[in-house]
Structure prediction request, 119 residues.
Amino acid sequence: MNIGSGASTRARRGAAHYCVSKAGLDMLTKAFAMEMAEHQIHVNAVAPGFIEVDSKTNPLRPEYVAAIRGGQPWPRAGTPEDIAAAVSYLVSDDAGWVTGVVLPVDGGAATGNAALPLS
Prediction:
C-alpha cells in the first residue's frame, strides 16, 4: 500500500519536485502490481487531496486554503479518517480483485476545477 498525492496528476508552481515524485510513485504502484500479481500480492495506492490538519510546523495561508477548497466539488476539506477508510478498504478482503489502482480520495478534485464559471 502506497500513499501518494493528487499532485501526481495536477502540477502547481513551486512544487515540481513534489509532483514528479508522486507521479513516479503512481507508476511504481502499477509496476509493482504487475510484478507481484503472480504471487497474489495486491499493490495499490491512495492519492489524498487537500487534507486539512492543524499544523504548527507548516501552517497554510488562508488564501491558499480558500483557493484549494474553492476548486474542489465537495464542499469540505478531507480528514485523516477519510484516508484511513480508503486504506482500510484497499487492504480488506472486499478489495480482493483490486490491484494496481491509485484511488483518489479528494472530494472530487481529480474530476476538474469546480471554481471555473459556466462557459
About this structure: The longest strand covers residues 45-48. The helical segments are 16-36, 62-71, 80-90.
